[in-house]
UniProtKB/TrEMBL annotation:
Residues 16-99 form the Cytochrome c domain. It holds the Pfam family Cytochrome_CBB3. Gene3D superfamilies: Cytochrome c-like domain (1.10.760.10). It comes from the Bacteria. This is Cytochrome c domain-containing protein. It comes from Hydrogenophaga electricum. Keywords: Electron transport, Heme, Iron, Metal-binding, Signal, Transport. PROSITE patterns: CYTC. InterPro entries: Cyt_c-like_dom (IPR009056), Cyt_c-like_dom_sf (IPR036909), Cytochrome_c_Oxidase_Subunit (IPR050597). Residues 1-22 form the signal peptide. The keyword Electron transport applies.
Length: 100
């Protein structure tokens, strides 16, 4: 591989890494909106549901149920409609990855 190709490949890798980091940061921003009720990083105070360490698929199902109206709620049905299904999956994965 010639030097120019090496620099182009390195640049592409750096761009991909920056894009991946930006996506992680975006998911953290979305998850931060949940902190008022579910605590920082999903570790809630007594009386509220903690999300940290929960099963991702169960969290996704709950979020989809809120979004569709299958699960009654005071505010979650409204909040969940503000996200795409893919975004809700990313939020669920974020909380599932947090330590309890």
């Amino acid at each position: 591989m010639n030097p120019t190709m090496k620099w182009l490949a390195a640049g592409a890798l750096c761009t991909a890494a920056l894009a991946a980091q930006a996506q992680v940061n975006q998911v953290r921003v979305w998850a931060a909106a949940c902190a008022n009720c579910h605590g920082t990083d999903g570790r809630a105070q007594t009386g509220m549901e903690s999300l940290a360490g929960k099963d991702k698929d169960e969290l996704v199902q709950k979020l989809m149920d809120f979004k569709s109206g299958r699960k009654p709620a005071t505010i979650m049905h409204q909040l969940s409609k503000g996200y795409t299904d893919e975004q809700l999956g990313q939020i669920a994965a974020y909380f599932a990855a947090q330590k309890k």
